[in-house]
Amino acid sequence: MRMIKISVIGLVFCYIFNSVCINILYAWSGGPPAYRTGAPNDLGTCNDIGCHNSFVLNSGSAVFSITGPDTYIPGKFIKLEISFTESNGKLHGFEMTALDAGNNRVGKFKRINKNAQVIRPNDFRGLEEEDRGKYIEHTAAGNKKKKWRVKWKAPADATDPITFYAAGNEANGNGNPAGDFIYSTTKKMNSASSVKTPDFEP
Question: DSSP label at 13?
Answer without folding.
Answer: H
